[in-house]
Amino acid sequence: MLDVYLRLFCERLKRVLAGEEGRLPLPDSTNLAPLFQNLLTESEIIATTLLENYEADMARLLFQLIREEFDEPKISLPFLQLLDLEESDEDVKRQDILEILEDINDFVHESEEAIDTFFINIMQQQNSESESESSTSMALLVGLHGKIIDIRNQMQQLPPGDNGFDINEQRDKLIHLLIEGQSQLDINEFERGREELFDLLIEGPSGLSVVAILDSSGFDKTAFAADTYNNNHVKFYFDCLAWVRVSIVYDFGKILDDIIKSVMPPSRVSVIIGEDYQLKKSVLRDYVTNKKYFIVLDDVFDEREIWDDLQEVLPDNQNGSRVLILVTDPDLLSSLEMENGEKIRLDSVLIGGPLIRLKHEAWQFFILHYGSMPLGNYLQGEAIPTVWRQIYSVMELPFHLKVCCIYLCVFRPSIEISTRQLYQLWVAEGFISSNGEETAEHYLKELIQRGFIQVSKRRAGGTIKACYVPSLEFTSLALMAEKTIFVWNPGMEEESLSNVKRCFIWEHLIEFLSLEHPDIYLQSFLNHSSKTDHLALIQCENFCKKFKHLRVLNLGSAVLDQYPPGLENFFYLKYLKLNITSLKCLPSLLCTLINFQTLEMPSSYIDHSPEDIWMMLKLMHLNFGSITLPAPPKNNSSTLKNLIFISALHPGSCTPDILGRLPNVQTLRISGDLSYYHSGVSKSLCQLHKLECLKLVNEGNMRQLSRMILSEYKFPPSLTQLSLSNTELMEDPMPTLEELPHLEVLKLKQNSYLERKLVCVGCSSFPQLKILHLKSMLWLEEWTMGAGAMPKLESLILNPCAYLRKLPEELWCIKSLCKLELHWPQPELRQRLRAFEDMEWRYGIQLYPSGI
User: Fold this and answer.
1) pLDDT of residue 1
2) Which residues constitute the domain of residue 535?
3) Quick check: 469 pLDDT over 80?
4) The predicted structure's pLDDT at residue 687
5) What gap in Å lies between CA 240 and CA 230, rounded to an integer?
6) Cα(105)–Cα(499) distance, rounded to whole angstroms?
């Protein structure tokens, strides 16, 4: 893994030779193609032939570097003996390898910068007659060949590699040690703990009860708590529920936001979420007062201020509210006392369990744990070995998965990661060269299967929408990223900045931009701070001057007053995310960046885009609050053939000429006055032959009657997902939609249909439909289905169904139907559903606000 830069450099040289580094052909007069080919050949000889002989040496060296980060007192003795690799004469050889690896990284750094400078000069030369800078950069390129030859010669002088260090053998020893140290979980004791916890939640004391749950051998606290949290009896018993991931990076502001988003209705969340921290605490406390709440805080480390923070926002109203704390680091409990007043220490052995009462001045406090180990052993025997096991697992990954996996540490642990954003970043960083998102999705599934990342949300169709990296997995990835200098953040030593290519920050953006970094050569910068720092124009200009070789620029939540000048010089930029609420017109200079793949400005509503946007041939994703595309130039027949995603397109841009130039768009949301633009939108959608996911959101004048006629829409047959919002249809949408041959997900959302009857009587209607959501169809009274309709339906949600007297009898003949969710059903419908309680196979019927 210490050779990561060289291997990524080889991939880049392949892209250069394939003409993928911009549209500029290599000038014949400079005869550079053979030079790049020679660089690639020599680099691959070193990466795949010579360095492979020293894989064991590099692995040993990397493990020693990581080993230095662990305090011996926190590591159990058997595990410590496993990690302590014997010192020998091999250290001299390993030092030689370390020096050569440093030379290789310096060579790659110099080569990357020289190639970048050469192509930028070629680009600028088109507008200038001076060739001096181009000649200088070419001379630098020519000199690189001699340096890579010198490195190869040095490697050939090294003694043979050490084959005595086997990664697989070390991993097997670790797994054996873990299994050997685990006591068998007693099933009877496990069930007793589950019953005691459930009794406490439902029938326990009226005061607020807090339960800290510890991991132990053979016991997964998160899965255990999730099983309880998702129990229907628990859901119906409490008025509001929240599951919040805390992580090793403690941020109560984020915890507060997550609780608010979970327990409060969306209409109130949108108003309060951007307010002052103290105000949000007060609002949350007022909201849950007199409500019976159940909150789970997962992955909690040694942040003892959490007790005070929780007391400020969670009132004890003596109504049976409950909080579960899933403890990763037992140091968190060392500020508490047993009922007899004895202080809890890391060498304390908790007996009398599995559910043990503690002393606490404000709450009814309990610990749930299994086994008889001292508390400190949970960290020594579980957490630290888990981190090392993940490190070994990363080392075993094939290279393409290894870089994608370690890159995950740029995100905060346990924070929700959009898979769409993750795929785009992997592609922009050069980790994935072909088939873009399809390959990225395959990589993600492999990493999930291997346990590095967890799924947090799925789309209605089943694809992964969001994921997160648990704290212990994050720790292992962050250690590897730091020791290989794969990424840098302000918490690392500044000496490593000289060769680093990727930088991310979680806080203090303004301070970072103020620092002088004269020698830094960044290809990627990501701001993941939760604070909305306000960036002055001069700060943006200075940033653009310093880091002109960026491929990825994500300024996150930082607020800009206007589009920053200087971005047009980022020739290699592929991914850009900015927060400019005032931006209404897309700058024409931005469209000169021909390598662009992803443009994200979700807070910008673009009324005007320049014609030059049609020259951005590599564009794949447009993510705006809304964007209006211009009519294509008459003398230009180019298409945006790589564009697959548009977050919100103005309906005025839905003309045959414009949509016909977007042949491969797969996901599209059209948002605006659909009534006014009805003719253009309805007739033009058929131009999108690859369209799979379509959302139609009407945002016209609500005082005027909708003129949308769904039967006039020419939907492409490729559609698999369709969502309608605020369309105020007066005609039944089902006869029009039931003929779509591949439709799997249909969501009729708020005010989509205003009449009282739904009819889908065709014997072959909705042949592929799996998910049906009927939401905010407030007056729906009657729903009729024909025999054989919706034969593959799996999930049905009606919210509300206050006037619906009965469900179609044909529903109960659909064998695939396994989920039925009804909100506010009237008594007549509720009574009819009771007949299905005693059937041999049970539908997953859920009624809100209370169960059957």
Assistant:
1) 64
2) 501-566
3) yes
4) 94
5) 13
6) 7
